[in-house]
Structure formats: C-alpha cells, structure tokens
Input
Amino acid sequence: MVATPEPRAQDPEPVGAALPRTEPLPAEGTWFLAKANLQLLIDQLRADGRIVLGPTVADGAIVIDEVRSVEALPVGWRDHQAPGHYRLERRTDGAAATRIFDFTVGPQSPKRWTFPPRTPLAVGRRDDGRVRHEPVAPKPPKLAFLGLRACEIAALEVQDRVFLGGPFVDPDYEARREAAFIVAVECAVAGGTCFCTSMGTGPEVTRGYDLALTELDEGFLVRAGSRAGADLLGRLPLSLPSADQLNRATEQRARVRAAIGDPVATRGLRDRLLAQWDSPRWAAVAERCLLCANCTLVCPTCFCSSVEQRSDLDGRTATMERVWDSCFTAGFAKVAGGSFRSRPRDRYRQWLTHKFATWIDQFGTFGCVGCGRCITWCPVGIDVRAELAAIAPPFEVAAEPLAVPAVGGPAEFRPARIREVRHETADTTTLLLDQLHPAFPAGRPGQFVMVNLPAFPPLPISISRFHPDAIELTIRAAGPATTALIGLPVGHEIGLRGPLGTSWPLDRALGRDVVIVTGGIGLAPLRPLVDAIAAQRDRFDAVRLYYGARTPRDLLYREDLVVWGRDAEIEVSLTVDRAGPDWTGPVGVVTNLFDRASWDGRHAVAFVCGPERMMQVTVDVLRELGLADDRIFVTLERHMECGIGLCGHCQMGRFFVCRDGPVFSIAQLGGVFGREGI
Amino acid sequence: MSTHTEPPALAGLEWFGPNLNPEARARLAAMAKVVEYPPGAEVFREGEEATQFGIVTAGRIALRVLVPERGQTTILTCEPGDIVNWSALVPPYRSTSTGVAIEPVTLLAFDGAELRNALRHDCALAAVVYPRLLRAVARRLVATRNQLLDLFARQVGEPW
Output
C-alpha cells in the first residue's frame, strides 16, 4: 500500500496519556470557560510551578514567550501569511478585537523548548594526560505550552518517533517532553500557507494534549485529554456549553478545513517523489534557493544537529554542546575529500525527499505536518506545495475518481442476451449482447466486465464496442470457460458485472497526435477508443494505428480497419509475424512499423495493448521517439476474480490492477512495469 | 528480369548515415547501381551465392524461407530504409532467405565482391559501413527474437 502514515494504529501514546486511565476523569466531556476566566487557567498553571509559554507579539510577529497574564496574549491580532510574506494586523472593531487566538502559527514552534537550539551534553576535562567526560544531566524546566495547534502537536509526535521511538532514547528530549503540559487551541482561521489538511494533522485537535481549547467570541470550549488536564479542569469555574456554542465550534472547524482545502496530493507521494531523482525541477528551484536554512530552522520537526566544543581559554575544559544544523549548509555533507551534496539542487532534493519520502522509511510517517512555516519564512517564497506538484505531480489516472461499478458486488451478475455471434478468427469470437442493464452500454473505452456462465469461473473481458443498447465482447478460446462462452447460441444469456476499472484517458490526447500500438487480441480493448476518436476526429491531430497479428488470418475487425483508414483519416498499418505468398503487407514485429518513423513523439499520446513483452518493446521504441512516460498508456492483464480490489489476486506493487487499472500510464507504474515476479 | 541503369540520384545513400564524408560518398556512389524489380521478381535466393548487397529505396521485398509441407513462408518484409542480402558482405556470402519483390521495388545495389574489396582496402570507408551494417543486422536480430516468442499465439491465462 501507499506509505501514507496510518498514525492511529502505531503512533506513540499521546502526551500526558501515558498514565493509565483506570477511572473516569473527574471532568470528562466538553465544558465552557468564560473569556474572563482564561487568566485563572494561566494562574493555575503557574501555581503548579510551571512557566507558561504562549503567543505574544514581538518584533512584528507572534512569537512564543513567557505569558503571565492574558494581556500579554495577541488580543485582537490577526496574521497574514503567504510565500515569503508575514504581516500582523491589529483589529479594533467588534468581536474581532477581543479574539485571542485568531492567527495561525508564527516562526517558532515548541521545538525550541523540547529540542533547544543549543543543549549542553557533556563537559570534557584534560588533566596531566588523563581525560574525563561528565555528562550534563538534563534539568528541564516545568513548562506549560499555551496555544499549541494541531500541526504543532503532530510535530511533537513526529519528534517523539525520532528521539524516543528508536533503539536510542534521547534523555534530554525525553525529560523536556515529560515536563511539559500542553494546552492546545484549535485554529479558528486558516493561514495562507497552511496545508495540515493534506498531511492529515489538523486543523482539528484530536490527541496529544492535556487541555484543548476552542475559542468562541465569548469564551472557550475546553476538554481534557489527560489526567493532569482533567485535574486542572476541576480547579476552573466551568459551565456546560449550549448547543449553539457546540454548533459554532463545529462550524468554525469546518470553515478552516474548507479554507485550506487539500493543496498537496499525498496519495502515493513517497513513491512519486522517489521516482524523480533526476527531475530538472531540482536545478530550477535551486536557482531561487539562497541556502539560508530558514526552512529547516522554522520547521517544527527538523532534528539534524551537530556537536560543538566550547573550550576554556587554557584548553583543559570544554563543554560539548548540541546545536541545530541544517542540510542546506555547506558543511553538512562534507567529508575530507569534499561534500557529497555540493550543489544547491542536491541539498534541496535531500530536504524535500527526506520530508516527504525517506522519512517514512525511517520513522513511519511524513516528516512534514503541513504548518507552512517553511513557505512563509522562505525569503524568496519557495512554496513546497507548488514544488511537490511540479516535481512529483499526482498521477492523472489515479487521480480520476475511482470508477464505482453500476453493477458491482461480487454476486451481482445481471443477465445479458446474446443477440449475435460473430466469428472473427479461427479461435476468436465476438458476442453482441443486448437486453442488459443500462450501466454496461454507459461504460467507457478500456473498461471491462466480469462475465459468468454458471458452473464456470467468472472471467474479466474487455468491452470491445459500445452500442446505445448493447455491448460487444471479443473472446478468444483459451480454456474451458472461454470455449463455453463462445459456443453459446444466439438468444442464450450470460451474467455480467461492471463496467469495471479505469478507462483510456482520451482527454489527454485532445489536440495531440495519437499513436495506438496493439497486437493480437489487444485490439479488442482499444476498439472503443478508436471508435471514440473516429466519432470526433477533428479534435485530434494525426492518428496512427499500428497493429500486429500472428498471421493475416488472425487479424481482428478487418472491416473496421478498412473503414477507419478510409473514412476517419486514421493511418492504419498492419503487420504479421509470418505470412503466405498471398500476403503483400509487411511481415515482422509491430515495432518495425514505426521505429524509424519521422513523426515527433513529443506531440503524441500513445495507447498500447498487447502481450506484456510486446508492450515493453513498444514502450522502449515510443520513448526513443520522444514520448514521455506519462503520455504512454498501457492496459495490463492480471488474474482477476472480484474486479473491485477486494480479492487481492491482481495486486501489482501498490496497485490493484482491476481497481486502479487496468489502464495505467508508464509513469504511474514506474519500476514495476515489466519487472519479473511482481 | 532486372534493369541496370546509371544512378541519376543516389536515394538510399543516406542509409550510411549523416556523417558520410565526401570521399566515402563518392566512392560508394561510384559503386552503386539503381536496380528496379517488378512484383514477383526474385531478388536473391536462399542458399545461393549472395552477389549483391542492397538498400531498399522503394517497394517491399518479402524474405521467404522454404518450410517443407508449408511451402514458402514470409518471415520478414524489407521496406524502404531496410537493407537486403547483407550476406553479400559476411562469409560465406550465401543468401539466408529468398527475397521476392511483392511490390515494384527499387534498390540501391552494390556488387558484393566489389564492395568487399573496397572495404578491405579503405579503412575509412570500412569505418563508415560496418557500424551501419552491424546496427541494421542487430535491429533485425532483436526483432527476430521478439518474433520468435510468437507472442500472439497464446496469451497466458484467459484473454480479455
């Protein structure tokens, strides 16, 4: 499956929930805290001996600092963020003037306190030829974070995996994390660079908090997520929220989610990105990148560090300190002989592929939580959302809404009547089926149906032609079931399910040259595509069909081939593997028909169907003619039984061929196409 | 059967590639003859001495092999841009199939012995001709392998 993290199952325990919840919390549920009483919350946290760290306005930004009173919070302030842009606005009218958390995230994150920029690790001493290293024991302050957002809590959980989830547990991080109390606040506004929705981290706060607040104009909805949080709730003046308040909170969350949308297509992102080591975009983005490392410094999950020595003047005592480092710096990948990532493009690629791909291999989750800081605080406004879309665009075919079959369930076979039986070749027969469910004639070129004759196993068969009230299936005798099907008389019924699977993306070919390469019975799933092209011929440039068969007698649809060439301006070229003296056409493999062609593949889209080996050879030739992998489409054959991605037989890498295919682009298939044993 | 004429134009010489130097071009042009065959004409015959190497500039030549009980079977056709009878340059200089024109065919033809002699004594010319020849034979070999797989004969599993 795609390596999208499934955090619910494997995530570390939410913070504060480590204590076993053996009895109901004293303050279970959602409560209302009046705005005037927020100070009491701060006071109670301070009474517990905690330093309260919260948002406050300084230097034109909302930063995290000690907060002793509500007045220090950004009351009435709103932030405006965009790539390379951050501005604060003070609002003085109406309810907006009293809102405390109407902003998203500032440049800092709790990382600064859970993983400080500079942490003493040990003190080394050298005395009379002897050396001693004494570790510095962590002495973290008791903190309370006030106002952490869902993405920041997710970032802490990512860091938990890094520092606590491996064989080595970082003692400093562990101590700091345990000493922190978290008061989360749900975002009431969406920032211009936010994409938590895409990363699955927000905007709703669902875990990892001691207390969670949702701000309303008149106060806060508050709930506890740990015993410590529940204990604190018990010390606050609370009332039950009204239905109206609960509704407004729900609507506020929905507004934020809708405003952010889904700007990063994360499905399959890891694999797409790892297929792009050689993208020209790396060099293009490096032209803009200043290598300033801002993105890694503001990132709430970046954890790379170096150890520095701070020495006394006499050189006998040195403090070893861990300091933040960045993969964008010149020295980061340096060895004695030089740097492994000397070019800016190498460093940007390292950073982006780590965040969105290799992090998953290392830590089981994306290294990005969608907070948008790296976009806002990039001095040249490089937008990771846009770079991901440019470097590793989502698969167009996979992005199509999955075809939900009209007649889908594994038992839902609907009868269809054989109206006509047409013998195409010695072993191949076309059945014209009518009196069928209207979903079947409404299918799309490239789709297939599951066909069943009771007592025989169901078979996947491509639809080889659509009529207003009928479909055609072209079947080759290859076993008992197919032999039985093509031996049925006119008037007999068979059972159908579908139409199933993806279709040929004809829209990709509009205004372009079309190249269709096929062999043997592979013309059957392509015939509806050629029909569709012929019906709207002026929407395409040159259309060329290359078709190979075993012998002249094995050529399918001979009348259609003539009509397409004569009436639809489709250049039809035929070849056979062997022929008698009466055949005057070409003899040889199908690629011989076009491997020295003079047309420019860069303007073309190709649709290919045939035995897989033939398709591999064809794809190689098409590439040489200039076709990019994302414009070469093939249809794959696999063992299929259910046709809807549930039985598992047709799995190919991360795809179910029946559900995600059978039509794929070569780009989408990546390394699995033509690979042995997949 | 065949009509020999002096080359009015040298269609087919481009087969030798874009980097053909003027000396080599002149040398090849002096040896080349344009030969035309009507449909049905036998251009060369399997097992016989290959006297003539050719480049198809128009028409189609079927390469046939005799299969007892099946008769003459066409295994490949040579189209414009293809070479025929490369056996004229490779020992033992015997044709490996029978070439029959199935359309009016025009060949740019070279006498096998004359071209071999030229290649033996002109290293620069040989350096132009042999890589092209090897490439053409290799293309044919790879295609033949794919053909040998008889991919359309029986597809694995059920067809659809």
